[in-house]
Design a protein that fits this description.
Layout: E1 2-7, H1 12-21, E2 27-33, H2 45-49, E3 58-59, E4 71-74, H3 78-91, E5 94-97, H4 104-113, E6 118-121, H5 127-143, E7 148-155, H6 165-177, H7 182-185, E8 186-187, E9 202-208, E10 214-221, E11 226-233, H8 237-250, E12 256-258, H9 260-263
Parallel strand pairs: 1-2, 1-4, 2-3, 4-5, 5-6, 6-12, 7-9, 8-9
Antiparallel strand pairs: 7-10, 10-11
Bound molecules: nicotinamide-adenine-dinucleotide.
Amino acid sequence: MVRIGVAGAAGRMGSRITALSKEYEDIQLAGAFDRKGHKDTGRDIGTIVGIGECGIQLSDSPESIIDNIDVLISFTTIEASLDHARLVSSKGKALVLGTTGFGKEHIQEITALTKKFPCVMASNMSMGVNLLLKVLQDIARVLGDGYDIEIIESHHRLKKDSPSGTALKMAQVIADALNRNLDEVAVYARKGLIGERKPKEIGIQAIRAGDIVGEHTVMFGGLGERIEVTHKVSSRDTFARGALRAALWVHGKSAGLYDMQDVLGLK
Ligand code: NAD
């Protein structure tokens, strides 16, 4: 039995992780918290997420639950996630980190901290996207430099970071497969008289509209043909189930930074 704690448990992702945790025989929901002063603090988390009373109250501090859990799952904000990583590190627990938008300095800190505890970090916890990352690598290698690569991602209007962590990961995987430095070839927007497309550019464009849960299309545009690979998510539950699967997997692993490819055995 793995005892989990959910950070941001009243949020869009946290609430689905909390609700779905009840479906897993080998997972016990042992704690849930959200930010300081959250309006639902003290209420039963089961009632908040729509699964009926479960006897666990929403806390507003990670310290109040950390000793009772094995794995913390955090889909929150960058600052909160870093705090959670530091706390997990000091307590010798495990972490599943789904928050997106980290900068290089944040990743460096997380990488250093995870020398002390096991952590699964992934900007997309769905099976489909992680499988696609593998496939994209193969397509890029076979096609080589003759095809123009464009990544188009669409998300709901409330998403804070752009482009999505998934689009960036896709771009990184493709850049690595083609021996390109992503910092040098990524193009995030085009406007004005900017001249012809440079052959090695990797375009990454972000759409924000309505309630789109998450869509990614990778286009390989050649002369006379074009390959488009699209992944669409229609429910956040696909990410939530991925996070719960990661929590089961990471419990008892040795210290280090892992991703969903490790969890799904795709490496
Ligand atoms: P949300 O705003 O609905 O939820 C975030 C929750 O975190 C809120 O309830 C907020 O109050 C809470 N929070 C803020 N500060 C906190 C703190 N210090 N301690 C505890 N809780 C705190 O957002 P969301 O749509 O659930 O997304 C959350 C993050 O997860 C985003 O970065 C998003 O991009 C990412 N995300 C990742 C995946 C994935 O598969 N990895 C999938 C979907 C979303």
